[in-house]
Amino acid sequence: MLKASPLPPAGQLTPYGRALAFPEHTEAGKAALAGATEPARSIVLSPDALKAEAIRRTGGLTDFGKAPLDTPLSILCASLNEEIELHALGRVQVFNQLVGLLVHRLKFEDLWRRHPEILDLPVERPIIVIGLPRSGTTILHRLLARDPAKRFSPFWEQVMPLPDGDPAAPAQPDSRLERMRQSLAMLDTVVPELKTMHELTAEDPDEDISLLIFGFASLQFEWSYRVPAFSRWYRSADHTEGYRYFRRVLQTLTWLRGGDRWVLKAPQHLEQLGPLLTVFPDATLVQTHRDPVPAIVSLSSLTTYGGRRYYDHPNPHAVGADIAAIVERLLTRGMADRPDDDPRFVDIQFTDLIADPLGCVRQIYAASGDILSPEAEAAMTAWIADNRQGKHGGHDYAAEDFGLDAGDLRRRLGDYQARFGIPTDRRFA
């Protein structure tokens, strides 16, 4: 996986750690891996090759726009080539993901040139969930999205924000939703346990990171690929322009499919409060809070399991160290950059969200100036009834599976837990 972090000897891995590091693929997974061997041989992960393929796929568009591109793309390609070891399927997937990013850059710029009125559309008073990963952000985001007065981006739209052909005159019927359903069905055959950790559905919202990638202001590359050099660039860069690009993407989605009061979510916003509030100064920011130790361990499990899509042997210890560092970084920056007594921030405890989700919604709406309509309350109540915790089964993990020490993590993150009065999870006490 990471050339600089070899897999620990099998004897140093727990049984669950060994299962993650030496995955037993489904038959569908084995077929996908075998089928990628030949295509992967011809793939070149370089900025020039990626740009050339994007230009070819768009029929000759050449304007990628002025948002950050050349520097982050060059660093990312170098990191992919020099620091990690992708298997054949991973190499094919990374190539197509990056080409897809560049195709969208070309199509966005072309659309904005032909329809400049898009960039005059308002993105006013969004509600943005900014909590720690695995702290109830997905539950809360999907609950808020039940309000018919709110606009959210379903997963199919996040992955494929522009329709095929000319976005100004899209083909009908729109095939994107069905293509995403088919893609997720295939994903379920390759990584069947993913839904017990984080369920992906075509029509529900997910992370903003899928829309932030177009301006290279997204944690997605760090989450997915484990790319140290790119991560260093990402941590040191000012992502204000990337967030402005994100806003233009939201304006475009509004122009295409309507809506105005956006409900958004990404834990990465915790370390980007400066760019976020510069671009969305009238936002209501909802921070969910949970004991960070189980959140780190749970996220390490999800990330290591998902790593089989890219690597022969995902390294649970390397992933655990990375996830702990990322979460510590998010929480430290989030505390340092958050203004004192700012009424735009709403704090929601994970325990309160599970116990009284509608009460938490009312608390958020009181801060954002919204009214919970009878229609929204009924839709939310129905969603809660159909989405109880553990719907797809349990997910067991321990700090030791990822080379982590719960006591050390608690010492590193104690300031955060104390500042927000977060109860300790008894399993990790």
From TrEMBL:
Q: Which domain of life is it from?
A: Bacteria
The record's listing under InterPro entries reads: P-loop_NTPase, Stf3_sulfotransferase
One Pfam match: Sulfotransfer_3
PANTHER family per the UniProt record, alphabetical: OMEGA-HYDROXY-BETA-DIHYDROMENAQUINONE-9 SULFOTRANSFERASE STF3 (PTHR36451:SF1), PAPS-DEPENDENT SULFOTRANSFERASE STF3 (PTHR36451)
What name goes with this protein?
A: Sulfotransferase
